[in-house]
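fyi for ur records
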Amino acid sequence: MYENMTILAAFVFVYSIASGGLAKTPVNGAIVFTAFGVLLGPPGFGFLQLSAGTEQIRLLAELTLSLVLFTDAANSNLDVLKHSFRVPGRLLLIGLPLTILLGFGVGVLLFDKLSLLEIALLATMLAPTDAALGKAVVTDESVPPTIREGLNVESGLNDGICVPVLLLFLAMATHPAQGGVSMLALNLVAGQIGLGVVIGAVLTLLAAWLFKFFARMGWISESWRQLPVPALAVACFAMAQWLGGSGFIAAFTGGLLFGWLAKEHKHALLLAAEGTGDTLALITWVVFGAVVIGRVVGHIEWQMVLYALLSLTLIRMLPVFLALAGLGLRAPEKLFIGWFGPRGLASIVFGVIVFDEHLPGGVTLAATVVCTIVLSIVIHGLSAIPLVAALKRRVRQ
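which gave:
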């Protein structure tokens, strides 16, 4: 235990003091963290011996994702979104369903040993994106605001929207004899999305009022001033999950509302939440490299690699191109948006949920998801800065 603690603490220290320099290179944090886990974990030298089970991995990934979603949403520019919500709206309402459908069709062609419901689960697990893996895209102000905010909002909401779809397919796969699929789908969508929005909004409004009230009374000490926001982000997620809603939708909704309520003070208030999220992300990717990759690497076959490559290209980019038709975006801009659909934390969470059900094709599903995430970490991470620079040059022309 202490050996693991020493290794992780030393790695956190070294990365934290070098992160600014690494941020200027194509090598993003997820690549470094995952590679560190692979090299020092059982797949590599074996110095890092982590015994995390699926429940612990899921909890870690969910907490990380809730903080990332909250802070990304809080940092969104709502003035831009008010005038250009059509981009994320089209991506979510048209692009996302088309991505799942196309992913299902490709899966039917490639995986003859998986059932149709298992293929539908695979397509859904790999549909949500993770903007944190292409952070240079959503934080670089040289990227047009419409594209930047569109990708940020899409990645913030698509994982929450996919939750009821995933649970519906999972319920049908594990309890095929139960009827009432239409009513189950309606209840899941209404409960997951509706409750998520309501809980995120109500908790954030209450928290903002309490914060202002006690701030006026002078009761908030400097040493505790940074903790309310991370606590609020986790509370939004956890309460929504507890009451049957989507914690991801709640975290993103709470973040959007908090960013609007806090306005000019939000960046100072979000520092601790962003730092906590970055630290949890580091640990999550190290665990992913040291534990998850080692468990599935021996099961990877060519069909999984091909599906992973298609998931990151054709299955993502074609629906995006079709969804954005008629919005006045040029072809390179639509291709840019389509390319930056990295798979990350949400797919890890979904993969653990499905793997826990012990479906007949569970190992194939897990290996395909892991293969897709690993490829995404590398190709999206390495391409972010060069493609942002290329887009910048095109915008100036």
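The two ends are 56 Å apart (CA to CA). thats all i got for now
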